Amino acid sequence: MAQPARPLRADAARNRARVLEVAYETFAAEGLGVPIDEIARRAGVGAGTVYRHFPTKEEIFRAVIEDRISRIVDDGRTLLAAGNPGEALFMFLRSMVLDWGATNQGLVDALAGVGIDINDAVPEAEEAFLGLLGELLRAARKAGTVRRDVDVPDVKAMVVGCQAMQAYRPDTAERLTEVVLDGLRTS
Length: 187
Hints:
The chain contains nine helices and no strands.
């Protein structure tokens, strides 16, 4: 039987987190062609450190995606637990479009440009994201703030559409996102 992975030492965990942050920023800004050695240099660690955590470039892509989606899901759960379930969905969707969408579009474009589908690369992250959307939607329905005729795929499609709109018309993204969110609200 395989031994469970031991928890990382504190310094190793910090290095891994730093590498992920730098990789995320670098891929989002410059695309996926940046060499791993350059990511190591920018993170202030040796290339061996990066390769120990992420033996292939695909593994670092996957880890960056998992880390980002994990943060998004955690943020959504925090909103849900904050005590205003009727508004949590709307706050989360605003964040997805106006914050996450704006800062992560470069990463999404880079991944798409080399044929990496986020949903295929990290299916468990997509599952966690859709699960969170379902929780937020149920809470908003229960609070009476969201229409009953929309489902999770509808909400995801709205987010994708709003993110595309933001790339197309960044100057009006906030106002148009509010128009879409108003369409989700009960009359």
